[in-house]
Amino acid sequence: xxxxxxxxxxxxxxHTNLVYDYTEYPTKAHWDENFGEKDYKSSLVKWLSxxxxxxxxxxxxxxxxxxxxxxxxxxxxxxxxxxxxxxYLYDYLFKEIDMLKTLLEKNKxxxxxxxxxxxxxxxxxYKEEEFKNLVKKLKELFDFKNIGxxxxxxxxxxxxxxxxxxxNEVGVNRLSFGIQDFDINVQKEINRIQEPEIVSKLLTKKVxxxxxxxxxxLLIGLPAQNVGSIERTVEEVVKLKPTQIQTMYMHYKPQTRxxxxxxxRNVQLPDFYDRKAIFSKASEELIKSGYERAGFxxxxxxxxxxxxxxxxxxxxxxxxGTQKGEVTNFIxxxxxxxxxxxxxxxxxxxxxxxxxxxxxxxxxxxxYRGMKLSKDDKIRQNLVKTVxxxxxxxxxxxxxxxxxxxxxxxxxxLKILSxxxxxxxxxxxxxxxxxxxxxxxxxxQIATVFDKYNKLELDLGLxxxxxxx
Length: 469
Hints:
2 domains; Arc Repressor Mutant, subunit A; TIM Barrel; three-stranded antiparallel β-sheet; alpha/beta
């Protein structure tokens, strides 16, 4: 088992209940709610005018599921009424796409879309007719001839082989399965029963030959989960041989998702030590089975494009997990959908269905918040994502890209990191910061040192160097 588990004092020292994933920086809580639809339109026109050839990922959010999973933090509505799904699609999502098309045509702009991603909720909720019509609507907005990856999130309980093959017929070539855990005791606690056999029956020879990449999402820190259960889950995962795997920590937020309390009705959640032990065991077993680590929580087979991107230093970490990095610009539609234009702008739609629909009824883009990044934001964004993905920072790389002196620019942060160095989590070299194997487990906490917006109250002994708040 990993050395991370050998020093319980170290785990306690660096443990905090609030750890940021840094799928974006600055984190969403610091985006400006005064950044509205006018700002969105002007930033979109400005950025596209200045970057006409930059590749774009187009994200579509579907906020519907048929059954509630107690672990879920996604923006979704639970319904058995398919008419609600159709109304959202035809009356509102299509209108948002049409408004975007009108804005582009008015300003003589086009979208150089290279990737498409359907997320949720569950986009597998759509019946074939609605799914086909959604793809047809997108073809009115941008040219499909340049599409590389077209991904769809899959609920394996709601599809069969024919439906998966249908997706490919309309252009989908990458599938992302919500697995979470294969242990039946864990599945009962999270209200998501799906045996390995369900997935095995879906991944037929024909399906495997049809799709370029197959991703599995696993969650760490679920109720009833332990080292033994995750080892068995990984054993089943390895048998099914997805090309990519995301092993994300579950975030417990009952203050915003009250139903999450139901996960504690029979057992407690794993504590901070058990979560590290579970994650370490999953990582250990995946690597032993031939997968390569791709960032903090992702894994890929050696011949997969993600592993290749990691080796070239091109991989990119965002809300969709560690991606191959060919596209880092996201335009998003649908309630709660968020995107980014390079490292210049962030924006997000309303979560609430009524606010999303009311804005569209007023013929306004349903923008909830956004942000224009400063130069400092851009530097720190690159840094926290690099720490989290590659576990190493080259000073020269940042000096050249941003015309700074890294050691002077981050002099305070480097002093703080000396504490991490004393504890064996990283080494501060003359030209780089290198995380140790143990320190890699704490890469989000290390990244937080460079986060000027979120100052966590970590007991790191900062008073000893005169930097305590």
